[in-house]
Design a protein that fits this description.
With 178 residues, the chain is α+β, with helices and mostly antiparallel strands. It contains 3 helices and 7 strands, in the order H-E-H-E-E-E-E-E-E-H. The chain has a 7-stranded antiparallel sheet.
């Protein structure tokens, strides 16, 4: 028994980094209730190549691989500040008013990012839009710079979601939406 315990201890000690703190998985969910029926809200968000129509930070959204709203499609977002983000559509379910995508590359300080946007009924004539993401910070080392840590990654995603959802609500409730 001592031999087994000794062997186990020496294996743990001999594997560098096994006990080091790896970058943890992070999660953000933001929601907004919109005074409009699900069909109207889904119509506004359903186009994978249409984020620029309702997100205030996106200047251009173009499909660069595949076909719009077809799983596997890749879009290139050009931000108003000139940065770019390339994303891939992983799942598209218009009957459930939901799509899922991942970031392939870009200026957002995250890695291993997947996100879902969904529209559900929230009472008579109202909709709940839920935008959620799972990701890690871009710098997954044990000691990321202060501007590359978990807090920075989480706040960046929260800010992206919040500004998009707030603008979507404003557009649809003012009658400017689709």
């Amino acid at each position: 028994m001592r031999t087994i315990k000794g062997l186990a201890c020496s294996l743990i000690v001999s594997i560098p980094g096994i006990a080091a703190a790896a970058a943890p998985p992070l999660h953000v969910t933001e929601t907004v209730t919109i005074d409009a029926p699900v069909a109207k809200v889904w119509k506004a968000v359903r186009e994978f190549n249409g984020l620029n129509t309702w997100h205030p930070a996106v200047a251009k959204d173009e499909i660069v691989e595949g076909s719009n709203n077809v799983e596997g499609a890749v879009r290139l977002l050009t931000l108003k500040d000139g940065g770019t983000i390339k994303e891939k559509l992983l799942a598209y379910n218009p009957a459930a008013h939901r799509m899922k995508y991942s970031i392939l590359e870009g200026v957002v300080p995250v890695s291993d990012y997947t996100s879902t946007i969904a529209v559900t009924k929230d009472g008579a004539g109202k909709s709940l839009v839920t935008w959620s993401g799972h990701f890690m910070r871009k710098d997954t080392s044990d000691h990321p710079a202060e501007n590359a840590n978990d807090k920075t990654a989480t706040e960046a995603i929260k800010g992206i979601y919040r500004s998009g959802l707030d603008n979507l609500k404003k557009q649809l409730e003012s009658g400017a939406g689709h």
